[in-house]
Amino acid sequence: MKLRRASSVAGLEPASNSLLLAGGTEVVPLLRAGILEAEELIDVRGVVPRGISGPSIGAGTTLAEIESSPDVPDALREACRLAASPQLRNTGTLAGNLLQSTRCWYWRLNWPCRLHGGDACFARDGEHREHAVLANDYCASAHPSDVAAALLALGATVQTDRRSLPLAELYRVPSEDDRRSTTLEHGELLLSVELPPAGRSVYLKAMERKRWAFPLVGVAAARSGDTARVALAGVAPVPWLLGPAGLEAATPLPGNAYKLEIATALVKRALAQLDG
Amino acid sequence: MARLIRTEKEIEGRYEEVWIVVEEDVLEQWPPGPLNVVGRPAPRGDGLQRARGEAIYTADLRLNGMLHAAVLRSPHAHARVTRIDLAPALAVPGVHAAIGPGETEVLAGECGFEGAPIAAVCADTLEQARAGVAAIDVEFELLEPILDSDEAVVRGSLLGEPRVRQRGDVERGLAEADVVLSAEFRTSVVLHNSFETHQAIVQWVGDTVEVHISTQFIWGVRDEVAKGLSLPPDKVRVICNYMGGGFGSKNSPDDYTFIAAELAKRTGRPVKCALTRREEHLAAGNRNATIQRLTVGAKEDGTLTALRGEYVNAVGWGGWSSPTEGPMHLLYSCPNVASTTYPAKLNQPPMKAFRAPGFVEGTFGLEALLDELAAKIGLDPLELRRRNHAEQDPSDDRPFSGKNLVECYRRAEPHWERRHEVRARSTDVVKRGVGMASQIWYGGGGPPSYAWVRVGSDGRATVVTAMQDIGTGTKTAMAQIAAEELRIPLEHVTVSAGDSARGPYASISAGSSTTPSMGPAVRAAAADARRQIEEIAEQRGDPDMPLGEVVALLEDAQVLGKGARGPNPTGMQVLTFGVQVAEVAVDVETGEIWVERVAAVHDVGRVINPLGASSQIEGGIIQGIGHTLSEERLHDPSSGAILTTSFESYRLPTIADVPEIVSELVDVPDPNLTNLGSKGLGEPPIVPTAAAIANAIRDATGAEVRRLPITREEMLRALREAEQRQRESERSEAPARV
């Protein structure tokens, strides 16, 4: 495996067997596990913007940098602070966090599940206590990004080297004809996240230990004018923007209905904190 | 003088009757309380080396010409190898040798659990060895796995006969009871997760085998390797200078040592076989899951009349059936007790001893049920324990060698009294409460164990014994004992340990036995040296001559003392005791639990090093909190494959999960136990933690948690069940109010 340092976005020219690498906290373990394969790693740290400039956050900014910035909305700062461990937050980037894969144990152990191109969701009939309660009939994986839920509630847009799109459109629920959970094309580079003017915002997280765990349920809420937007982590294969139906649309599995109870309580609490 | 005796030998609650040669323990115990060195806090002698990375662990060792081994392990919970071809592995560059099923006894084609070792490859580098393993051509026939412990019992898939223990007449006891309660408790599989993974380096030096190994029992490894390789034991040398944790999982040489030995023999090179973290999650042992169906009967005043338990130990494919029923038989003075313990054989990785095996699990069930009883009859939980205190071993009426549990209860009172103030800090959403649980466990150690003490003309002493310090600070404690007996400063004592070729036989470091086994031998050896020094002083005509002046006469001569661990007191039960009081907060909407404070009071006889002792208590409680709240090994319910094979999915507590810990020790020498009166403390602190937390949760919320770990799911289930119970009782009481 080769490692190449990119010096410009134009010079990336990723081959089909290239992988982009920034913090490496997700890509390296997946390479080790044999889930990702690559002949070439392209270190993009030199070309992806890093730092916070007004409403624009460079995609290469580390979670630790966002967490310690006074200029970001509370929901985003709190989502960063409650993610991972200090060591991981010092290394992991905003883009890496948004683009991380599910923590579904079957997927991580490389079982031939639907996301890996197979024809079964092992979690649905198996151990799924930490899995999705929404949009889970094809694949019950839960999206683990605290940060994505916060940005979704904040109404963020994403700038890539090819286009600008609302964060919600970065994600897609995997389906039979397309197993991917993002809409990024191969080699497309996430450059920055743009935040609209924000009112009050909050992020609440339930996990199975006090720190360094992915969300069982994460709830972000942000005020935008007269309305409040609520988004959840850990409850669906993608970060989940709560629609008018609320959690009524949920389809919990036999072993994870408790997550709905937590989600209901945290949504209520988050909205109360927006008002409080 | 040496004496041949027949005695009971106990390790981790397992007894054997053995003939044993012991030496009389002729020394009087020291007076109670802190002495010059013993009983005073001493920082670890090798703490700096460890912190600086200068301590060389087995994992750090690189021997000249050393090859690395990797192991092909079963990917299936139950399968049979139908065809295996090692030739492609031998073709991988750098590979020196490959062995398959039957080529050493630890490799087999019958795979009873995911992770069962099938074949092994050694190569110049670890990467090459792994490539070799990946190249092995292997086919399996899949077999049906048995994964459910109750089903295993019904189908007769057992690892031995069920263990039946009883005293009195339980049916009569239940008939006499005013209150009878039954409940089912479950505990899950948790892992040792030693910092240093299981590993050994084996090399043949002439006709001797040298084994560098991360182990809790140098001498056990020596004997088992000698037996496995058909060698005289003295042709096996076992070395373990520094050790990165074992918790009961490193008592034996295990597959990796025999794999390294066979590959070393075939290649003529040293071979290292080290488990990866993933292998550690599969094949390094575990605390098995249990099911506990318990019944208690009591009088209205709380006097226990009957205890009954049906226990299922989900042992796995191998291992042994730990004494989950032990606390029920030992903790309380109840006249009628009966239990049956089934050892379920499952297609799951074998259990191994894990820090008070059985008693951690059994104490959770028993002490949680006792608290439910206290609530039912409206009695203070601490008072309930006091009323049923056992003055002698309730299972056979033997006197205890020393027991200060009542004193532990007394010293726990200020912590227990905090419950009123703690509860008062509850809000509508966050409820607070306090719970307690008693601790009972072994920890008396026993013979044989030996030590030598060497004093030179500089007045410094070296303790020589082939024991291991598994990270508990044993070497420091032994230096303290020698310094005390020789009346020299602690800094003037060195401890030489960790090598079977350099020193006499020493105890296993399991069953909280190292200090109570080794300590008396070290003291006897130091006393032997001191006696000789006093004899020299008398010959000089000055019996009061200070040690330094006497030994200054020695020049190159040395004073050599030897000491042996004497017998345990005949006809007495030697146990450790304690109580823990936990304070928790529970978010009743989200099921989040905060353990805010744990106070621990334990009775382990004389304390040698209060600093090391408080570390042990803190470590035990933190590990207990992990088992209680976040740690659980999960498997796929249909295939039996293990799903949690990393620290990401298997959740050890982090420092953010650690509460305020207050540790106290009664610190009274056991008057009947050895020349020290000391027992072990490695295991006692983890025993009551889960039960104390569960009882605090009940105090805070009324919810009866019945399963470890207490995940959000279990907490919310118990909360909803408690609400339902509350509603039903309000409904049934309603007419009376009208």
Summarize the structure.
With 276 residues, chain A is an alpha+beta fold.
Description:
The complex is a heterodimer of chains A (276) and B (738). With 276 residues, chain A is an alpha+beta fold. In chain A, 23% of the residues lie in helices and 19% in strands. Chain A has helices at residues 27-32, 63-67, 74-81, 86-91, 94-98, 105-108, 122-125, 146-153, 258-275; strands spanning 2-5, 18-21, 40-43, 52-53, 56-58, 157-160, 164-166, 190-194, 201-206, 217-224, 227-233, 240-241. In chain A, strands 4-5-8-6-7 form a five-stranded antiparallel beta sheet, with no helix packed on it. A four-stranded antiparallel beta sheet of chain A has the order 9-10-11-12, sandwiched between helices. In chain A, a hairpin with a 2-residue loop joins β10 (217-224) and β11. In chain A, α3 packs antiparallel against α8 (146-153). The longest helix of chain A has 18 residues, at 258-275. The relative contact order of chain A is 0.15. Chain B is built from 19 helices and 25 strands. In chain B, β24, α17 and β25 (660-665) form a beta-alpha-beta unit. Classes of the chains: A alpha+beta (276), B alpha+beta (738). The interface between A and B is medium-sized, with 28 and 29 residues.
Task: Please outline the helices and strands.
The complex is a heterodimer of chains A (276) and B (738).
Chain A: E1 2-5, E2 18-21, H1 27-32, E3 40-43, E4 52-53, E5 56-58, H2 63-67, H3 74-81, H4 86-91, H5 94-98, H6 105-108, H7 122-125, H8 146-153, E6 157-160, E7 164-166, E8 190-194, E9 201-206, E10 217-224, E11 227-233, E12 240-241, H9 258-275
Helix pairs in contact in A: 3-8
Chain B: E1 2-11, E2 14-23, H1 47-52, E3 67-73, E4 79-85, H2 87-90, E5 95-99, E6 110-111, E7 117-123, H3 126-135, E8 137-142, H4 149-155, E9 163-167, H5 170-176, E10 179-187, E11 199-205, E12 208-213, H6 218-228, E13 236-239, H7 254-267, E14 271-274, H8 277-283, E15 289-298, E16 304-316, H9 326-330, E17 337-345, H10 359-377, H11 381-387, H12 405-417, H13 419-424, E18 430-441, E19 450-455, E20 461-464, H14 474-486, E21 493-496, H15 514-539, H16 547-551, E22 559-564, E23 576-587, E24 593-603, H17 610-630, E25 660-665, H18 689-701, H19 712-737
Parallel strand pairs in B: 3-14, 12-13, 16-17, 20-21, 24-25
Antiparallel strand pairs in B: 1-2, 3-7, 4-6, 4-8, 5-7, 9-17, 10-15, 11-12, 11-14, 15-16, 18-23, 19-20, 19-22, 23-24
Helix pairs in contact in B: 10-18, 14-15, 17-18
